[in-house]
Amino acid sequence: MMLRQSPLRWLVLAGIMLFISGWLLDSVLGKRGIIHLTLGIPVHQIRSEGQSKENNVLNGDLGFVTQLDSLQLKTISPKYELQVREVNEGFSQEIHTNILPPSRLTAAFPLSQMKIRKIGDTEFRFRLKQFYPDFDFQYSYPENRDTIPPRAPGITMNLKTTGKEEVVTLLSNQPKLHRLDDVVHFGCSLEYFWTFSKDSLTQLNSDSGKIDNKIVFAGKDKKIYFHFNGKMDSAALAVNHFYPIPGKDSIGFTILQCFPDVKLLKAVPYSKSEKLDNPVAEVEVWKLGGGAQNVYVYPNAAGRHGGEWRVPGSDLLLTADISHEDLVDACTCVVSINDSIRQVKVTKVLNGHQVISYRGNNIQLSECGRDGLWANLEVWRAPGHYFKIAGAFLTLGALFMLAVRPGKRQ
Fold first, then answer.
1. Starting from the edge strand earliest in sequence, which strands make up the sheet with 316-322, in order?
2. How far apart are CA 215 and CA 191, in angstroms?
3. Which residues pair with 259 in a beta bridge?
4. Which of 149, 226, 348, 350 is the most exposed place for a label (fewest CB within 10 A)?
């Protein structure tokens, strides 16, 4: 054969040996893992990237201590993605207890509707059904409500306070659910009755000896009674109409539905606008051979914990958030390294996906928090990297020369 007859065979063999030597060096001396940093907290351990429960602990010493000093993000146009994350219970216990997320990204997927995706090495699958940029519910009720018996009457309202809106439902057939005390700072309580006598508004409160401010809804009569400071006023109860609180025009409530039986009330998800004010993804998840269910996942926002779905029997969860690549590209991360062995302290700046090196370790930002409080750094050491590259080039070069070299005639 040509390879046996040519002196280039020694180059091929040398290249193969170099590549194998590099692979063995990486296997024995190499390492790869994640450092989870929380602002101002020193860390000296590296976490493996495995998803098994055996690897779900802190392991490996960096040989130095590193700390997140600052994290700044440029303004970006948010683009969202579905994410599979591994919950890091070790980080949660050893490093921090209150700052989220104690997890790392294992896979990210674009918002492609109805495309089936796999969740890690599990038997679970999922697909995006709908993405709502500004998620909310539309409440509907049958048009023949006047002919429906009042088995479980109630009212659903959107309460608007300063900088906040929330939906509540009051039910007259359950004593603890027919009344809402002044927890939303309207300056009054809210009460709902199917049938109601307005004379009862003037009854004294048995505890305080005075008449409390209150707003009472009468479902059957479709009336609203405002009792404030000893004076009473009334208004017709109308759906989708905003009623300001007396003396406080900027806060109040909008009645979404008033109904005789709560069982017929339907809430249908929709998007109020195309603005990314409240992004939520509706996702269908199922186990192979089993039934499917719909879940709603969304990111952390304004102090609100994000929506997520925990994969049964694993440390994985499914959620939605801003593209991790976009966040890293917009991030400038400053970390300090305190090396007690070399008795030095250095400061390193990571811009986006920039790779820095220290004592043979390559360090790259892989994730960061929008709140500027945490970052995940990928750390790896590959002492055989250049041996493998040299071996590959040498082998390919020799084989190429053999391929283009004219053969000898026998």
1. 103-109, 80-87, 316-322, 308-310
2. 6
3. 154
4. 149
Q: List the structure tokens of 353.
A: 């996906």
Three-state DSSP class for 268? strand
Contact, 79 vs 96, CB < 8 A? Answer: no
Dihedral sign computed on CA atoms, order 13, 14, 15, 21 = positive
What's the whole-number mean pLDDT along residues 316-322?
93
In 3D space, the residue among 381, 369, 380 whose CA is nearest the CA of residue 333 turns out to be 369
Question: Alpha-carbon distance 65 to 345, whole Å?
Answer: 9
Q: What is the mean pLDDT of residues 282-294?
A: 94
Count other Cβ atoms within 10 Å, centred on residue 148: 15
Average of per-residue pLDDT across 257-281: 93
| Distance from C-alpha of 108 to C-alpha of 48, rounded to nearest angstrom | 19
Asked if the bond preceding 101 is cis, omega within 30° of 0, the reply is yes
CA distance 10 to 290: 58
Q: Write the DSSP assignment of 340-392 as a string of letters.
A: TTTTEEEEEEEETT-EEEETTEEEEEEEE-TTSSEEEEEEEE-TTHHHHHHHH
Rounded to whole angstroms, what are the CA distances from 200 to 49, 203, 216, 231? 66, 5, 10, 13
Cβ partners under 8 Å of residue 276, min gap 6: 78, 80, 133, 134
Burial of 233 per CB tally in 10 Å (0-12, 13-18, 19+):
exposed
pLDDT of residue 95: 44
Question: Which tens digits make up the pLDDT trace of 139-196?
Answer: 999 999 989 999 999 999 999 988 788 899 999 988 789 999 988 889 899 999 998 8
What is the per-residue pLDDT for 33? 83
Q: CB count, 10 Å around CB of 316?
A: 22
Amino acid identity, position 290:
G
